[in-house]
Amino acid sequence: MYSYDDILSSLDDLPHLACILKEKSQMILPDSVFTHITKYFLNQPITIEGLAVQRNLYGRIRSSSLDQDEFNLLIQNIQHCLNSNSQDLIKPFLQYLHNMNRLLPNNFRDISYLCATLLLPYGNKNIIACILCAYLEMNARSDTRYDLIINNLYENDDEDEDNIWLDQLTKILIENDQQWLRKHYLERIYSKKLLQAIDTHDTENILNINVRAQEEQVQILIVDKINLTSISSFDDLHSKLSSYVIDTLPNQSITESSLYHLLSSSTTNYPYDLHVLFSCLLISILDPTNYSSSTLRLFRQLILLLNNYYIHQHDLFDDNRFRITIVFLVSKLLCEVHRRRSQSEHEWYRLHKDVPNDHPLPTFDFFADLLGLLATLCYNHLDCQQQVQQVSGTIEAILSMTQIDLNQPKSQACVIWLLKCLTEINEELRNYIKQIK
Q: 89 and 81 in contact (C-beta within 8 Å)?
């Protein structure tokens, strides 16, 4: 059993003190202990061991507010760690900051978010994700830097990492996509006229509109050293950090790679603008000069999400207009990929009677994805079945996909299933297909 004196006497052995405080994390400490330890660290250099002690000290229930010395120590730690070249300090600093954040007045509760945003380029994804989850669950501010968060935390695949906080953050980000998907991706990549046509389901003009917005170069987040030497108060520190994050760091367009990794992290959460995003990607792929593997990879992930969306009947409360628009666009894309394969236009789309040299190609089983989605959309929906028939050449394109193609091994089975979904309650379409055969 440790007494308060035992804790204070361990200040000459910081690793041991950190272990004691962690072991006794449920122990309620008087303010005098916090004050004594704070005064000690105010006169010491900032070290990993010292931050570990402070992290474990504040990782417990405390009813009283921070005193001025504790605010001064917090300022000192932030000043040093944000401008330090030592990445080893960042992890314990962020953990300490997360624990301190609970004790701050409400108007300063975003301080950990601001610091975490500035430290995004230095790793520690799990801790930063934890801080961001706490922040986003309490805030819905329009100036939140979703662009920096998504581009830095999701640029690379972390399948091998056990990151429960990143999983939770993914769920929150997808649920909040109305705050960032259009602002930081759709409106930066695609023209306003195209987005308006998709929003209004203008299928007559949707394919005759300039797709791309004005090109913008994606800037890598580089955080210069912040001048925090002349800080007069914690309020002054908070204002400078807030201004730097919101106004100084350049706005970015979210990358396709980051968006792919974010959306592939969950198959049960659906962005509000899923249909708009899907439509934009499909229309860009319709461009016969667009052979971007990153665009195609993201689009195929959206096919999976949209398929799950309709299988689980998340469309029960909408007016079905998006379903019809998607059917129209998928039909157009099936006609286009059929044309590309017929003309052997590109290695990705030509008929492969032998296994491709670069197997698997980015389009491996792509036809099956499209056919499966169209089957889901058309099952028991007569209006969708009629839409497929109205798009000239779609039925012929579907039937052509029964050819043996080693780059599209599942397409034959998917054609059979799609034809069943198209004709089960549609005798007119069934007779039309018989005539073609």
A: yes
Please report the DSSP string for 66-88 in residue order. P-HHHHHHHHHHHHHHHT-S-GG
CB atoms within 10 A of CB 355: 10
Local structure of residue 119 (DSSP, 8 states): T
- E strands of 54-130, at which residues? none
3-state secondary structure of 392: coil
What is the rounded distance in angstroms from the CA atom of residue 398 to the CA atom of residue 331? Answer: 9
Between CA 59 and CA 21 the distance in angstroms is: 9
Where in 39-147 does DSSP place strands (E)?
Answer: none
> Is-contact 370 303, C-beta < 8 A?
yes
Cα separation values, 291 from 171, 254, 347, 382, Å: 31, 20, 10, 34
Predicted confidence (pLDDT) per residue in 181-235, tens digit: 999 999 999 999 999 999 999 999 999 998 887 655 555 555 567 778 888 899 9
Q: What is the pTM of this model?
A: 0.90
Q: Hunting for tokens 């945003």 — which residue is that?
A: 117
With CA atoms as reference, report the closest residue to 154 among 17, 256, 24, 233: 256
**Bridge partners (DSSP) listed for residue 190:** 212
pLDDT tens, 49-85?
A: 999 999 999 998 888 889 999 999 999 999 999 988 7
